[in-house]
Amino acid sequence: MAESGEEARRSEKQYKGIRMRKWGKWVAEVREPNKRSRIWLGSYVTPVAAARAYDVAAYCLRGSKAKLNFPEEISDGVSEGLSTASIRKKAVDVGIRVDMNLINAATPMNKFPVNEDIDLNKDPKPETSD
User: Does the first or last residue of the chain, that is N or C, have fewer Cβ atoms within 10 Å of its Cβ?
Assistant: First the structure.
């Protein structure tokens, strides 16, 4: 899942509206039309998630004129004319969903054994060594 420095730089240039922090997280932000301010769209594990968050926000702000990273991925559920807070929420929701899908796809199911007998409503009991 971790990218080398060169791969990370290539990903950063590949997608619009994202950048990589020194510690490896990907962040997205979009400039508001006719303003100097930006809308913070969050931090993500993958560059694709950050780019998808950017796309949602850019489409909400600029409509069909927006330059998107994944134009084929914009759905009918994305609308124009929303408040800054609503745009941020929609973008973050998409980014988190994409991150989780990519992380789950990369994680083998048997890596984390699941004990079906655990009741999360009860206090944990110390394990006994036999």
Answer: C
